[in-house]
Amino acid sequence: MEISIPTFNFIAIAPEIVVLVTALLVMVVDLFLAREQKHRLAWLSLVGVLAAGALSYAIWHRSDTQLQDMLVADNYALFLHMVILIAAALAILFSVDYADRTGLAQGEYYTLLLLSATGMMLMVSAVNLMTIFLGVEILSLALYILVGLNRAEQRSAEGALKYLLLGAFASGFLLYGMALFYGQAGTTSLSALRDYALSLGGEFPPLLLVGLGLMIIGFGFKVALVPFHMWTPDAYEGAPTSVTAFMSVGAKTAGFAALGRVALYALGDLHGDWVWLLAALSALTMTVGNLAALRQTSVKRMLAYSSIAHAGYISVGLAAGNQLGISALLFYLFAYTFMNVGAFAILIAAGRLEGSARQGETLGGLTGLYRRKPGLAVAMAFFMLSLAGVPPLAGFLAKLYVFGAAVEAGLVWLAVIGVINSVISAYYYLRVVAVMFMQERERAEDTPATVCPAVQVGLGVSAAAIVVLGLWPAPILDLARQAAVAFFGG
Amino acid sequence: MNQLGFPLLSVIIFLPLAGALVALLLGKNRTALKVWALAVAVIDLALACVLLGFFDYGEAGFQFVDRFVWIEHLGISYNVGVDGISLWMLLLAALMGPVAVLASWKFLDGRPGVQARLYFFLLLMLETGVLGVFAAIDLVLFFIFWEAMLVPAYLLIGRYGGERRAYASLKFFLYTMAGSALMLVAIIALAALHYQDAGVWSFDLQTLYGMPLTWAAQVWLFVAFMLAFAVKAPVWPLHTWLPDAYVESPTPVTILLAAVLSKMGIYGLIRFCLPLFPDAVAAARPWIWLLAIIGILYGSLLALVQRDMKRLIAYSSLAHMGMIVAGVLAANQQGVQGAIVQSVSHGLTVTALFLFVAFLEARRGTRQVDEFGGLWKSIPILGTLLLTVIFASIGLPGLSGFPGEFTMLVGIFQESAAAAAFATLGIVLGAWYMLDLFRKAFAGSLVRAENRTMADLGRREAVVLLPLVLLMFVVGILPNLVLRPTAASVNELLTRAEDRRVVLIDESGAQAWAGTIQLDGPSGGSH
Question: How far from the centroid of its chain's Cα atoms is residue B304's Cα?
Fold first, then answer.
């Protein structure tokens, strides 16, 4: 009897392998480190993440990066690998002192962070429903634990439980949707599904529509689209802030990437039949996210709602469904990574200044920050204004891009709702700027506390990135465009 | 490259920004910061004067153009230039730089606790923003400058303003941002229409000038643009941010808001609305005239009853801007040219008036007009100058207010005698409240003891004020100096507008517009 051993093209999953191996290494090395040496794990993780990032860039534009019919490291996947790895790298930088300070178990922490990054990377490379689900579960399981890692904190446990229950629910929806796809088309491969959809000649079988609907619900949970966002504020608020920063960007990236592959690649020819669903969800998500964010007093919770709103803006790119829309989506995720992770990092730094992580998450913790720590306040102002979409920062171009794609696709109304939402969001982002710059602490205090150097580096990189991306976006836009071409199989 | 072989215009725009960044390095040395900011502003003004010297009056198109491609596949470029329409706006903005810095010297002297570094950083950034707005020829670039200057203005008002500064700054920011949100969609829509027409994206104004628009497209896009400019100018009833922002701002910022930022709305109307949407402008004219006239009367009547002099001038500014908007909407040679001249004149007079209020406030610590009276006897030089400025403001012949107002009224009269009559009413009311202000503060007898010992015009005050008064005379006596450079460009702009008119109003336009924008719609995605 002959056993055929499939040829494995390891290049296609080389970045994932690097991150995975690093995760395992961290777990082993953890055993040999004394308590006060644990922070070295962060540097080990960082090296692994940066190596994976470099590797992703090195295999850019290679055509032989298909692994069976399961994974492909095309430009689309590689671009998003870089987004995820940047988010991971920043999160690691921001964890160095935070994990120590809040007494997190660092070996487990970094291992799980890297594992969830691996899951996200698998998800963006996946071109088969099976591998998509594999990625979803790897990333979710790691994140469930990360959210609840801070056992001393009650909110953390509450958030983790909500996330776990609703996440498991979402996985069920996702899987059911996939099963319906398989039942209708007889395949789980996205390219085979695409051929099948093409063969339908514009007819949309109800089973596929229901399946897509269920999958949108499943992914909607992961990326926090309204009305599947209920877990988000609690999980984001309860999780250690560095985890919140990472998951708010990474899980979104992975979820949108996979939804894009399923909806726009596999069922792209039926775009006209499902666009209304995504456009409506997008409008709803922006509006609810922004309106809810208006009422928050905790900045961390406000940022949680703001990240819901941004999920709405990002899905405008998907709803547009054209090549411009995909490159807009990619550019948006890239820019969003820096501004959102940066904003959460300010809360970490403020927590250290206040001597209480919790106090740093409120508006009060940021009051008069300009006088105390001008660098932090200026960086936070950049993040807030960029999130609000004020030019010439990266957030503005990202919005210009997605709304441009929407107008090109004939969704002018969606662009109008989008810009109106930007104005609403400016109100709560400006409130943060106002307390930092326009109010002073009642009691004059000299803050002996300093900002951890790793956090300073991370913040410097993030703030610089959103300025540079805003002023000189051409290199990244070019990459995003090449990725969008690859996405549509060009 | 432009005719000079040197990016003069870009240098003028970005010099204040560079100066702002250097100011950050100067640390806490207040004197150095003051001198540095003044030097930057004065050099910038000098460069603007050089630009004026090289400006070719006969040329209707853009001059001193600097251009490079910024985002290629979307057709967005860094593209700046000056023509007869933006020339005076740009010079006005450049002139207000040193004025605002000098006014800041005084403002900062009164507040030793204020950190001068951040203050001048923001002020100079704001200057770059407004200069950029008047020079941008690319629509995205225009929008970037338009919105980017909001941030320094917001922080300046909110950090250094009066008691209700937090409220005023937020209101200012949100009003402007809300007004311009739809403009962004309209800008994208214009470019998308061009994309369907020509197959390439372009945000270049000159390219878009050549694109015909259906009636319905014009209406929607005009509304979106008009909203942004109407908030900025402001046009009644979108003016409610104005009294708060003008009154709560520190005087240097009030000056920039009233003299320069309000002109951004006027400039936008002339540059974008008139040539791009000529049919919509013609259709909207009576309505906007109505709003402008309401604004003139409303602003004048409220100015009449104010006790706070800063607030009085804020409302007078609303009335004046209503008049200028009415002039632009006449959409003929006289109306537009008059609006440009009157913009310059209003910039000069309103600045001088706010300075006077600041001078009196510095002497007495109050802006309430009742606290003064009979000042003529204690400070006659200031009194004479104020009277001159008031005469200029109310349009006395020989001073700057006259040629602009007169030309504008001629323009409005050609389209509607009734509108011109109502607009004239604004001039009458203007004379009333301004002279009333002068009477209350300067005429009569010196009742209060504090007012007897007031110092007259100081040296530093003279340095700021006298050039402004001199310019009021220059514009008033030699109006052609200002009018002539604008003629060619305004003429071309109006000719272009006339050419682009969709003569027969197409009833099915609405469908045609909705249809065209969906042409490359959803199905375009899946290649």
Answer: 24
- For B398, half-sphere exposure in the C-beta direction (CA atoms, 13 angstrom radius) is 5
Q: How far apart are CA B354 and CA B366, in angstroms?
A: 14
Instruction: At A338, list the tokens.
Output: 């820096």
Distance from C-alpha of B159 to C-alpha of B179, rounded to nearest angstrom: 23
User: What distance in Å separates the CA atoms of residue B279 and residue A68, rounded to the nearest whole number?
Assistant: 61
- Phi, psi (rounded to 5 degrees) for B79: -145, 110
Question: In one letter, which amino acid is A234?
Answer: D
* Residue A426, CA distances (Å) to A233, A294, B118, B130, B235 in order: 20, 10, 22, 21, 23
Q: Which residues on adjacent β-strands are paired with residue A67? A: A71
Residue B82, token pair as written in the block: 């000056």
Joined tokens for residue B199 = 């197959």
Inter-chain contact A430–B166, Cβ cutoff 8 Å? no
SS3 state at A419: helix
Inter-CA distances, A457 with A119, A353, A449, A453, B48, Å:
27, 17, 17, 6, 41
Angstrom distances, CA of residue B108 to CA of A101, B102, B112, B117, B442: 43, 10, 7, 11, 28
Strand bridging mode B63-71 / B76-82: antiparallel
User: Across residues B323-343, what is the average pLDDT?
Assistant: 92
- For residue B108, give the nearest of B456, B365, B360, B362 by alpha carbon: B362
Q: Which tokens sit at B418? A: 């009734």
Interchain CB contact of B185 with A (< 8 Å): yes
Judging contacts by C-beta atoms under 8 Å, the chain A residues touching residue B527 are 323, 488, 490
Q: Do A421 and A311 contact (CB within 8 A), yes or no?
A: no
User: Does B154 lie at the interface with A, CB-CB under 8 angstroms?
Assistant: yes
Which residue type does A244 have?
A: T
Q: Are B141 and B133 in contact (CB under 8 A)?
A: no
How many Å lie between the alpha carbon of A302 and the closest alpha carbon of chain B?
18
Q: Does B219 touch chain A (CB under 8 A)?
A: no
Partner residue opposite A408 with nearest CB, options B143, B185, B520: B520
Asked if B74 and A404 come within 8 Å (Cβ–Cβ), the reply is yes
Residues contacting residue B11 through CB under 8 Å, at least 6 positions apart: B47
Q: What is the ipTM of this complex?
A: 0.91
Cis check: omega of the bond before B237, within 30 degrees of 0: yes
**Which residues have CB under 8 Å from A383's CB, separation 6+?**
A339, A340, A342, A343, A346, A462, A463, A466
Per residue in A284-320, pLDDT (tens digit) is 999 999 999 999 989 999 999 999 999 999 999 999 9
Structure-token pair, residue B478? 């030699």
CB within 8 Å: B144 and A391: yes
Go through chain B and tell me how many residues it has: 527
Structure token pair of residue B58: 């006969």
B419 touches chain A (CB under 8 A): no
Instruction: Tell me if B24 sits within 8 A of B117, measured CB to CB.
Output: yes
Averaged pLDDT for residues B327-346:
92
pLDDT digits (tens, 9 = 90+) for A381-411: 999 999 999 988 999 999 999 999 999 998 9
Model confidence, pTM: 0.91
Instruction: Tell me which chain B residue has its CA closest to the CA of residue A419.
Output: B181
Tell me how far apart the alpha carbons of residues A436 and B152 are, in angstroms, rounded to a whole number.
15
Structure-derived torsion over alpha carbons of residues A318, A323, A328, A334, reported in degrees to the nearest 10? 100
**Angstrom distance (rounded) from CA B416 to CA B409:** 10
Nearest to B523 among A271, A404, A412 (CB): A271
The residue type found at B355 is L
The C-alpha angle with vertex A55 and arms to A466 and A16, in degrees rounded to 5, equals 95
Helices (H) and strands (E) in chain B, counts: 24, 2
Question: Torsion angle, CA of A345/A347/A353/A357, rounded to 10 degrees?
Answer: -110
Chain A residues in contact with B177 (beta carbon < 8 A): 422-423, 426
